[in-house]
Amino acid sequence: MFTKMENGTQAEWEHISQEHIPHIGDMPARIIAMLEQLEQLSLGFGTNQLHHALQTATMAKRDGADDETVLIALLHDMAKVVNVPNHGQICAEIIKPYVSDDAYNIIKTHQDFQGEHYYQYLGKPTNLRDQYKDESWYEKAVEFTDKWDQAAFDPNYDIEPLEYFIPLIKKFFAFPHSV
Is the pTM of this model over 0.85? Predict the structure, then answer.
């Protein structure tokens, strides 16, 4: 086996590619594990972050959102298990090979959209979403944020359990459509 990538042979790179396949195929399990870790995080909210994710996704599903929108509603905060301040950008990069450009951008910028609802309390501008007004996904991001995400902190809301969404996770994360 080589010690520098530039010295690799065709056979070595084919072997490495084959070794990647099981790891790529295990993506649904890693997504589910990240979601399960959200149960340990409340971050000061009245619900833990798993309940928030499930409530956001349940609300989107019950409102008739398409599968991809329900998926991103479920996953939008999962990267908080890694880093809270830029969880949206981290999550967006994790899901990018599996979702549309619109979904990627909605997740990447959802904090800018959500800031309209609370940034005044933190001394930050509340109009950060305005910079995206000309984007094709802007209205979808407004709907996602205003209708579901910012409204999903009710500990008494009748959520669907994580198991309900596992087929959706498996469907989208079976194999990346881009690398």
Answer: yes
